[in-house]
Amino acid sequence: MEMDWYLGLSAVLFTIGVIGVLTRKNAIVIFMCAELMLNSVNLTLVSFSAQLGDVHGQILVFFALCVAAAEAAVGLAIIIAIYRNNLTVDVTKINLLRW
Amino acid sequence: MESYIFILFATMAVAAAVGMISSRDTVNSALFLVLNLISVAGIFLLLKAQFLAVVQVLVYGGAIMVLFLFVIMLLNLSDEEHMLSRFSVRYAVGFFLGVIVLSQLLYAIASVTGTLPHIHPEMEQIGTVESIGDALFTVYLLPVLVTAILLTAAVVGALLLAQRNISGKVNK
């Protein structure tokens, strides 16, 4: 089983995340698409780590998981704060800073 | 055998990702994302990264997605209406940009195809808890401590951001 397939799967998952971020309007779904992209990059790191036989790629994935956990907590708190003020999480209606 | 398991997990992951971005109900999106994360954990197992597969299921599929589901439950959102009928230009542009990103990534992968080696033979020892913990608590001791500070700051920041506006000021 060559590594190309793992990298290709990672590219496909990343693209699905990009399409989700660009097309969806719900802020929570956009956030979940960002998690999907983070996870696909983790897959790339693990596959390169596996083909080089090097533990450092997996350590990087571990730290990326920690940062993703922190980011999820803060991002969801921001979404709750936005919902308290605007009573919506639709990103097309949150346009205070949009020109 | 390995390629069949890979095809199974890869199909599950891609199908769950497509289901996540195309389902109207936010709870369904979150559950599809859980399925996707568990499939990717299975692919981690195929790559002999046992520790990361377990951490993926526990932290991502468990803790983070429970947080997402709690927030969805708390906000009590209704389904998006007319997800595809309005803003058709927006969907066309998003899809077009996605295709561009995918073609660039696949072009970059195709330029090195055939030169990439297979899974390293020593990988079964490298992906274990023992070797990762050995690296984490010797070479990467300082980053682990910084991660602890980061997580504490994130929890405090989340509490500060999500608490009620006690000053009584209403922004609407």
Structure description:
The complex is a heterodimer of chains A (99) and B (172). By secondary structure, chain A is mainly alpha-helical. Chain A has one domain: Helix Hairpins (Orthogonal Bundle). Helices cover 79% and strands 0% of the residues of chain A. Chain A is built from three helices and no strands. In chain A, helix 1 runs antiparallel to helix 2 and helix 2 runs antiparallel to helix 3. The longest helix of chain A is centred in the C-terminal third of the chain and has 31 residues. Chain A is elongated and about 50 Å long. Chain A starts with a helix and ends in a 13-residue tail after the last helix. With 172 residues, chain B is mostly helical. Chain B has a domain of 77 residues: Four Helix Bundle (Hemerythrin (Met), subunit A), CATH 1.20.120.1200. In chain B, helix 1 runs antiparallel to helix 2 and helix 2 runs antiparallel to helix 3. Chain B starts with a helix and ends in a 10-residue tail after the last helix. The model of chain B has no long low-confidence stretch (mean pLDDT 86). Classes of the chains: A mainly alpha (99), B mainly alpha (172). At the A-B interface, helix 1, helix 2 and helix 3 of A face helix 1, helix 2, helix 3, helix 4 and helix 6 of B.
Architecture blueprint of SSEs:
The complex is a heterodimer of chains A (99) and B (172).
Chain A: H1 3-23, H2 27-52, H3 56-86
Helix pairs in contact in A: 1-2, 2-3
Chain B: H1 2-22, H2 26-46, H3 50-75, H4 88-110, H5 123-126, H6 129-136, H7 141-162
Mean pLDDT over the residues of chain B: 86
The overall average pLDDT of chain A, rounded, is: 90
The structural class of chain A is: mainly alpha
Low-confidence stretches of chain B: none
Helix/strand-derived class of chain B? Answer: mainly alpha
Helix content of chain B: over 70%
**What fraction, in percent, of the residue positions of chain A are helical?**
over 70%
Alpha carbon gap, first and last residue of chain A? 50 Å
Q: Which second-level CATH architecture of the domain at 1-77 in chain B applies?
A: Up-down Bundle
Number of helices of chain A: 3
Q: Report low-confidence residues of chain A grouped into runs of 5 or more.
A: none
Using the alpha-carbon principal axes, give the shape of chain B: globular
The total of beta strands of chain B comes to 0
Shape summary of chain A = elongated
Oligomeric state = heterodimer
Query: Biggest interface in this structure?
Result: A-B, 72 and 88 residues
- DSSP helical segment count of chain B: 7
For the record, the CATH class of the domain at 1-77 in chain B is Mainly Alpha
The largest β sheet of chain A comes out as: none
